[in-house]
Structure formats: C-alpha cells, structure tokens
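@channel sequence for tomorrow's demo:
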Amino acid sequence: MDTFEVVGSLMRERRSIWTGVGKSGYAAQLLAATGATAGLVANFIHAEDLLHGELSTLRPNDLLVAVTWSGRSEQIYDLLGRSVCPTVLVTSARHQELPRVASHVVPCAYTVDELLSGIPCESVLETLRIGYELLAAATTPEERRLALQRGHPHGNLLPDSG
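structure tokens (generated this afternoon):
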C-alpha cells in the first residue's frame, strides 16, 4: 500500500483530528469539514488549543493529522511529540527534524508562491490537493454520495438526478 492508502485506511477506521497554525490551520479546518461531509469522523482543533488543554481529548484510537507547509511550526513539532495516538504530518518539508516524529509523513510538492506575486496561494492549494487525495483514499465515491445525501440536506453539492 502507498502512503495515501495507509493514511486513508487509518482515517476510515479512526476519528481524525486535523490541526495546524496560520494558513495551514485554515487548510486543516477545511479538510476536516470536508472529511466530515464525506462521511468520516473528522474534526479540527487549532494547534494552540491542543497545547492549552485540549490535548487530553485525544485518545489512542484517534488519528492526529497535522498540517505545516514549512515544517518549522514549533506547535506542530510539540504536538507530534506529545500525541497518544498515531500521527500524520502533511508538509512540504524534506530535511527538517519534524517529519521524523510523525507516524506517517505525506509530502506536498514544494512550490514557490509566484502566481500572485508572493501572496501564499500555490502552497495552500497544494496542501488542499494532498488533503483531498487523503480524503478520497479514505472513502469510496458511493460512500461520499450517500454521506452528502444524508448529511448535507440543504446543500447543492450533488448533481440533479432528474
């Protein structure tokens, strides 16, 4: 199995807690919400909140999914080292110490934010792309369709059938 299949399997079997700081935190929040919409048990807790009391909500059968583009977020490093559950690190970092403390590392393709003259854009989009691939590996198209029907009754996410 490749990394996406392994992590997808873990997400399918466990409650996933997504976390991050800064723009990576916003990406993690969106990915947790999308995971829940797709039928997974997924929540977001900000890394600072985890480090200030919420860390005790993690259980050994959970999965902590930490997102950090740079791999230099002290909060993420601290969380990964203190987690009681398996951890997944989504990052573009290659040689920092951070990836070595995670159970699984899911690499993002490193990109330089040039599209909007240095405004962080491509890095966030790459993070979301990788996150969506993980969510797709954790669910089947039919499971996602049924979850949308059941859990998103006021949305227009499914094509009209008639």
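heads up for whoever presents: The first strand starts at residue 16 and ends at 20.
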